[in-house]
Amino acid sequence: MQNQEHEKHPGLMKSVITNKCPHCRKGRLFIDSNPYHLKTSLDMPVNCPVCAQPYELQTGFYFGTGYVSYGLSVLFLMVSFVLWYVLIGISIYDNSVFWWLGICCTLLFLLQPIIQRLSRSVWIAFFVRFDPSAASRHKGPYPQVS
User: Fold this and answer.
1) pLDDT confidence bin for 71, thresholds 50/70/90
2) 40-45 long-range contacts, Cβ below 8 Å, gap at least 24?
3) pTM of the full predicted structure?
């Protein structure tokens, strides 16, 4: 009984990184858990299966994820440049900048499905607040209307 009262809730960062519903932090944001199934990579249920939170708050809600994706990509490039500079070094006398650029472009291309999902998770977490009692208030399956 006491454990239920003091149940630990997942943190915001963990729920964003694991693509969980920001309202209850338990329901999955995406139907398919593998981001590399490219045809279904961004398919989301209409509502959270745990707390019934609508995932598309308004028409075109996820258009703003382009800005988040851009920011995450720039952050990745900055961190990788600093690491490259510290570990390998950059010189005007060799091609190390071009090696860094080629490797980073390849990695960004390969990580794009993960970055897109993470961008959606970050974007919806900006607008939907956490409610610890959301999952317990919802009873039964919520109808999935498309």
Assistant:
1) very high
2) 41/113, 41/116, 41/117, 42/116, 42/117, 42/120, 44/120, 45/144
3) 0.81
At a CB cut-off of 8 Å and minimum separation 6, what does 17 contact? 118, 121
Domain presence at residue 9: no
Residue 80's domain comprises 14-137
d(CA 143, CA 125): 23
Mark out the alpha helices in 6-138 (DSSP H runs): 12-17, 65-87, 96-127, 134-137
124 within domain boundaries: yes
> Is 29 within a domain?
yes
Give the tens place of pLDDT for each residue, 109-131. 999 999 999 999 999 999 999 88
